## 1
Amino acid sequence: WAQMPMNYAEQLLVNAPAPDTNPPPLPSDSVGLNKEENTNTT
């Protein structure tokens, strides 16, 4: 069973679109970093 879930997650990731899953985390991280940097500079 341990292998089943692992494979399932991997399959989901492989099946899921890389470009669609990549853009969301990128912008979110950029905003968080920008906001944090802005707060530190102020």
## 2
Amino acid sequence: MPTTVVAGSWGSRAGSLTMAEAISQFAIAGKTSPRSIIMRLLDHVLLATVVTLLASTYAAAQTKISAVTSHSSPNLGEELVRDRNGANNGRSLRVNANTAGATWLEKLGKHAKVFWWLETEKTDDYVLKALNLKELRGSDLTKNANYKYFLKFAKKAESYRLNKWVRKKFSTYQVWKELGLQKVRTVEQLNQIRNTKEFGIYKRFVNEFDDDVLRSVAGYNPPKVVVDRGAPKAEMTARVEIMAEAKRPMVYAKLALGLTVPGKPGVTLKGEALKNHDDYGYFELFLAEAAKVAKTTNKVA
């Protein structure tokens, strides 16, 4: 059964608290990072704002439509809009005003729905069906007025998904499995999936995961650096390569790989103890990849 290595805390501060520090302390108690709390709050505030705007806009639209209708008395309206052929356009005027307001309101409503679908983690199939796009193909799909709402959903869905994984403290191997990559176990198999969408999402998560941990350290919020010992060579290799490409500090690479003193998860191994660790080979790989990145950077400069 896979074991995990969890890094400990990096200290705390005393005295009066700023808003950011208060959020940080609250996050510690709830085992959630300040960034995750703020992102979650912003999601809900945005959704509430859209819904409120939708309601107020609907009321305003109804008031405007009522005003147009009430001010168009039968006789006066007929005189104002009667054309040369004597045709009566009074009713047409009121209908057009009503339709324009309803169409604008409907568009606003769809934007609100997109945020709701994101918040409730709906699937692509669900959204396509809700927008009446499920059976459309080719130009019939892309030219449909609702297609832009699906594109908006699809573009933001990945960010919402990644944010959820970060909030829930998923390890990199957990996300690897979430993306259906559990059968990719060797380096040879890894090389075959490097250009896939799934690997691209995994890479983005690793970078967001590492950024979140480093921000947590800087913000005095105890981070959790989790290493799944049951992870295959393919995932560990990819993890290390991504860290090196992002120019992560050497000490962070040790922590992320669990190369720490037993009982002192915040203290990294050195000397023979480091070399004798089962995962030292991955740290050597990190150093080699980091050297390649540095060499490439120097050439460009």
